[in-house]
Amino acid sequence: MAGITLALASASSTAWAGAWVQEQGQSLWIAKVLHSESDAYFDDSHDRRDFPDRGRSRQDQLNLYVEYGLTENLTFVGNFFGSRFKYTNDRSRTEAGVDDTATGLNDQEIGLRYRLDPGSEGPWVGAVQGLVVVPGYDRPARTSSEPALGLGGGGVELRYSVGRGYALGSRSGYVDMGAAVRLRGGGAADELRADISTGVGLSQRWMLIGELNQIQSLGNGKDDGANADTVGRFVANNYSLTKLQLSAIANLSQSTQLQVGWQQPVLGRNTGTGGGPFLGFWWRY
């Protein structure tokens, strides 16, 4: 089961409004709790398949996201994850000694975002961002049934995002679009990533946000197939995931907000299908 959960961990990052930087001395903190579970996976042909033996996967994740304005054009970014993965099936319930649960830190991300607008005039803003990916776990042995908390090995990511505000009748909104390449160490493949998000103010208190996240491996990993998972013959070298997210944010005060939403994978290859709810608390100061 390690392979399927492994790809879930690699796709856990959420896209934020990456085209904007924080004002100098200002910060944004977002604490989120996410839950997902599934009884199926996307196989190597992009088809949805049930886990054998009535298998079921579950993930509970805590995510802390931080931005801090170092200067008027430069922002520090941190994205920290901890998860509990569990996989059960009829066989694991009857066989003693099966370790199908893993709890710990996932890939941790720290970096810098620099304002780099696409033009000197106009409504569009932009920013370039560099991240360092540091694994917070030891990858289980290939023969272990323990779910993996990540793909293993460190990495770096370079991203460019553009965004702008817009009016929808009497309502205000924004759109943010970003593309990135993530180079990974260890045996995992490098990745291309793309994200689109848009938000529309429903009232003075409420905003509705929709997101589309895409991850595509480049197939250049060092895994030759010996690490194929017993479920769906998953190989970490070839995978993809398309995920949709819908949420609503309520203003609690001038500096705090509450977010409630749902995320759901809709397409994929050699990845899990688990979606579920999440709850977030935003704090600006």
Question: Can you describe this structure?
Answer:
The chain has one domain: Porin (Beta Barrel), CATH 2.40.160.40. 5% of the residues lie in helices and 56% in strands. The protein is built from 2 helices and 16 strands. The strands form 2 sheets. The chain has a 12-stranded antiparallel β-barrel. A 3-stranded antiparallel beta sheet has the order 3-2-15. Strand 9 (155-168) and strand 10 (171-184) form a beta hairpin. The longest helix has 9 residues, at 2-10. The N and C termini lie far apart (42 Å). This is Transporter.
Give the tally of structural domains.
Answer: 1
Termini Cα gap: 42 Å
Provide the CATH top-level class.
Mainly Beta
Read across the widest sheet, the strand sequence of neighbours is 1-4-5-7-8-9-10-11-12-13-14-16
Signal peptide: 1-17
Protein name: Transporter
Keywords: Signal
Organism: Pseudoxanthomonas composti
Write the layout of secondary structure elements.
Elements: H1 2-10, E1 27-38, E2 40-42, E3 48-50, E4 56-69, E5 74-88, H2 90-94, E6 101-105, E7 107-115, E8 125-135, E9 155-168, E10 171-184, E11 191-201, E12 206-217, E13 240-251, E14 256-269, E15 271-272, E16 276-284
Précis, in short:
The chain is about 5% helix and about 55% strand. It is mainly beta and about 280 residues long. Keywords: Signal.
Structure characteristics:
single chain, 285 residues, mainly beta, Porin, twelve-stranded antiparallel β-barrel, three-stranded antiparallel β-sheet, 2 helices, 16 strands, 5% helix, disordered N terminus
